[in-house]
Amino acid sequence: MSNELIYEKKVLIRSEQVNMTRALRTSELFRLLEEASIAHTEQLGCTRHKTLDRGLLWVITRQQVRILDLPRYDEEITIRSWPGEMMHVFFPRIYEIWRGDTCLVQGEALWVLIDENERDIVDPEDYDIEIPGLPDAEDVFLPPIRMPAAEPVLRQDLAVRFSQVDINGHMNNTRYFDVIDDALGADFLAANRPRTVVANYLSELRAGDAFTLTGTASGTTWYFEGTADKPKFRVSIEF
Predict the structure, then answer these.
(1) Residues of the domain holding 226
(2) Which pLDDT tens digit goes with each residue over 126-139?
(3) pTM above 0.70, yes or no
(4) Residue 4 to residue 72: CA distance in whole angstroms
(5) What's 159's domain CATH number?
(6) What angle do CA 166, 169, 174 make, to 5 degrees?
(7) pLDDT confidence of 1, banded at 50, 70, 90?
(8) Residue 82: which of 30, 146, 39 has the closest Cα?
(9) How are strands ordered across the β-sheet holding 154-159?
(10) Measured between alpha carbons, how far is 76 from 162 in angstroms, rounded to an integer?
(11) SS3 of 17, please?
């Protein structure tokens, strides 16, 4: 693909990116997709001089992936990503991961820019920021996660560690999946592969913040919520 609006990169899966089953960890899957987003955004001219150096931070509000198969240790994969048409303050982005001619993962995300000090979403037009969308790209509408009414079967009281905080000054969203993996445990994850993962990021968690992780199972889907003074994130994983 030669279109500049389509980003493409080959990646070799390393040992530190996989779990004990040698499959790519969910957190690393989302990290790879997000790194592709940032690299492509910079290629399209929206560099840190237009964002970070002006006190603007890129954050994700919602994302989802459909996993047909997980990349594995020592495999070479190709990540492809392209932007959709901007929707006011939202920057849609679409993803694919391929193993040769086989598509392994498809996904979408909605990105926004926030003010580093106020922590509020900004209007990109106020900063003359625009990212062209790929013509005829599919629309990205990601509905909110509805938590089931049933009582949680899993509950853990946790705190944000310094090592979990990223350049934006909050717990990196990919680290939520490590916390969830730890809660589900090795035996469950060795026997069950995630097929659809949906995430809603509702509010920030900062270094030292205490929060409670709850998990509820409904059929083959697990629903997780991280709550402090209010819900901070929600994740659903269909296995």
Answers:
(1) 154-238
(2) 999 999 999 888 88
(3) yes
(4) 29
(5) 3.10.129.10
(6) 40
(7) very low
(8) 39
(9) 7-12, 76-83, 91-99, 102-115, 56-67, 196-201, 231-238, 221-227, 210-218, 154-159
(10) 32
(11) helix
